[in-house]
Records
---
Amino acid sequence: MVSLFVDSANRADVTRLLKTGLFTGVTTNPAILDKSGLTSRDIPDFVHWATDAGAKQVFVQSWGKTANEIAERAERFRLLGPNITVKVTASLEGIIAAKSLAQTGSVLVTAVYSAAQVIPIMASDATFIAPFVGRMDAGGRSGVAEVRSIQLAIDAAGSPLQVLAGSLRTPQQILELAHAGVRNVTFSPSVWDAFFNDEMTAASVDQFEQLATT
């Protein structure tokens, strides 16, 4: 089974994709909120709106200078609803916070840029790990290769940790990750639209439509 998530806080885009019935929920972070003209103060309103729009799961990122600050803020975010999964970064303080948060609910460790980072994240008992595929590519690393290595390590260790791959740029990347066993992906509406831009498929659809209506 594959779970798809909308990587956007733009309400029109999120609504359009959730209405398909094919997406499980929405992922956010401070950069995604900023791109849509939102700030951290808008998180509660956005969570309630996304839930009403049909999101079964909403990811919200916590922050802070210490593990305690990160965990305390994350616990406050959890009060927004039972469909909240809190996110922390793959810093030392973030992973320490993840260990605490994992005892009381689901938690995702984000901003992962190296396969080796999966080791402390598995030890934290986090629910999800979010490697940034496209950003790794931009930094000179093979994002798909790093995620494959992460998935191999999880499988070999028998860990329940799930990969939720982000920063995806093309449907081909998503396909390659599915081959590696990745079952959770989050991407922008533009990547979703790219699944349906195949010229050969479009030509067949037009042909079938013409034949059916003659």
Note: The chain is about 50% helix and 20% strand.
---
Amino acid sequence: MADIPDDISNWSWAKFLLQLNSDSNIEEVTVVSYNYDIWLERVLLKLGIDFQVPLLSSSGAKFQLFKPHGSIS
């Protein structure tokens, strides 16, 4: 599995995720992914964005990650 580079701040997706995370008007971000890999979880961790997988973890995080057909980290 390829490593996530240390500096991903120029990635469009990274900028978008960070913007969602820092916007106080956005209370919750729900992501549904059918990918089997854990790329999104690794990117969120690299960016320092807290997330939870409902029914498996309950941290009160803004980002909710649902993966009905894929693996979870």
Note: The two ends are 13 Å apart (CA to CA).
---
Amino acid sequence: MKAAVSTAVVIVCVAAQSVQAAPGWERQLDMKAMAEAARTIGELFAGKRPYSQQALKAAAEAIMARAGVNLTDAFAGEAQQDSKADFGAIASSTEDFDKLARNLEIYAAALSTAADRSPARLGPETRMGGTLLGSPFAPKAEAARDAAVVPAEHVYHLMLQTCTTCHAKFRRP
């Protein structure tokens, strides 16, 4: 009887440790899923992958599902040794981190909408052209404003810029 109780206690302790470790693994899997989704979108725009409305929509939705408050919540926990996240920087600049997470969600939503509008191909209206945004003389990008008015390909680049900015500020080398 004592052996059964001891075994049960060990199982409960191991399970509790696994549950505590899960957010770190989930966070890493989510970041990898977003990177893969961004790669898919980039390949669609670059012509390295045949255009598929479903592929663009699924990739945008994958990012959108992990961005915004979901991304903020994923990094609200304690630092873990195997994480490259700089939890100290995130904690001291939560407003900046939250804004980047929201911007990522806005850009992903705009790409999802672009997929809805582009059932057969990425037409000229989805491509970057003569827009000032993205040039060195452009006003600072503002996700809520720009995602709705710039071509989807440019939204993709703004989304990548958001990822790069977040990694530069909140990721350890």
Note: Residues 1-22, 131-137 have pLDDT under 50 and may be disordered.
